[in-house]
Each structure stands twice: as C-alpha cells, then as structure tokens.
Amino acid sequence: MTNQFNRNYHTHCYLCKHAKGTIEEYVLEAIQKGFKAIGFSDHAPMKFLQHRSLRMDEQDYPIYLKELKQAIVKYYEYILIYKSLEIEYFDNLHNRYEKLLDELDYLILGQHYILDEGKLKSVYKIKTLKELTIYKTTIIKAMRTKYFKILAHPDIFLINQGELKKEIIDLCKEIILVAKQENVLLEINANGYRKKKHEENGKLYNVYPREEFWRLVKELNAKAIISADAHHPKHLTDEAIYQAQKLSIDLSIEVEEELVLD
Ligand SMILES: [Zn+2]
Ligand SMILES: [Zn+2]
User: Which pTM value belongs to this model?
Assistant: First the structure.
C-alpha cells in the first residue's frame, strides 16, 4: 500500500463499555506505530438511548475529558491528540451539539437510530424504503447544521439490503451530494470489515463498507476519510485498515488523510 495510515480520527475507549483500552493505551499504541494524530470519538452519552445501546454514561464524560487532557499534556511532543465524540443527530439537541463543540475539537455523526413515527429504531434493523428514507432525511438534516465534520459509516443503512434498487441508489446519491456540498467527509469505516458479512439471496455482503455506495462516491466526486473506528488499540493498524485502503485505491476515491479543523 502506498500511503501509510497514520492519522485516525475515530477511536473509542473503555468508557463506552464495549471497547477495550484506556485513552493512554491507544495513544501509546499510536505513537509506537508512528501515528501523527489520533482523535478520540467515543459514543456520546445519550440518556434516552442509554437503555438501548452500550455507550458512555453521563457521569463518565468528565472522566473522558480528564483522561484526554492528561494524555495531551503527557504526549504533546509525540502526537496530536483530538477530543471528539461520535453522536447521533436529533432535532431537539442543537444546544447540546453547540455546547459540546465548545469543549471538543469536532463531532462525528454516527446515526445508529432513526425516529420512525416517534419511535426509535436501530439502523441495524431498518429495511423498508420508508425507513431508509428516514435515515437519509435525518443525516441530510444533520449535515446541513454544520455541526459534524465526518459522517461515520454513511452506508450503514444498507445493512439489510441485497442488490440495491434504483430508489435506494438515489437515496445514496442524495446523501453523497449533500456531504459534498457541506464539506462533510464520508467515512470508509474499517470496523465493518471486522464484522460478520450479511447474507441475502445466497450472496454475501459487507455490512459496510458497501462497494456500490463507494462507487457512487467516486462517480459524484465526493471526499472520503478512512477510519479505524478502533474498539481495541490493535485496531489502529490491523488487516481491516488495509482492506479499507484497498477499497479506496481500487475505486480511485479521493481520501483526505488529515482532518482540517477551523
Ligand atoms: Zn462502538
Ligand atoms: Zn464508532
């Protein structure tokens, strides 16, 4: 592979309760592997999602900030460390995003739930065109707010699809075009390669990245970023990263290696 993967902006830690490793353990691994930057973006605490998914507890958020601050002070000579969260978009949370952006460097949009007629539904379970359209509308609205620098696994909503119908391709295109307009980087998420493939009509599909989606990204000339979405320090440099890089190279997708922060 030509370009080395040495900046990762999507990193979790033990505080979300389904990732392994402290902030310091990830930082040390990154330094050892010659990384120039590491951004932490653990799953944001979210009261009304707390019972549905493993994520950081509200009372652990100050610990997160404290550990980040300590790492920044201790390792600033060796690596750039950024503070972020991976968070869902909901209409009523604009104040929260603004407050978070006062203390963090950027936010990653990771839409793991949609609101369908007032009910929360996991994106891992969505399948109908109606549900897919809600996902599209939600993340487009989110990108328009400009709170988010990176759209994590944009293709996650295709998780239960086999061959993509024209209507679904059109939804993908809408998402990609808005990302391009709003300068939101579309994330090729290596964590998808660490997951079990999805079977539909006897054919195996990656849960994400979905090649069909990334072909459209190339066709529409939008920008991508590769993320480890590390849930273990070893994920910063594993085989999944290699696969994500290979996808971008095979499809000649323009990949930003460095996140520009204003
Ligand atoms: Zn996670
Ligand atoms: Zn993540």
Answer: 0.96
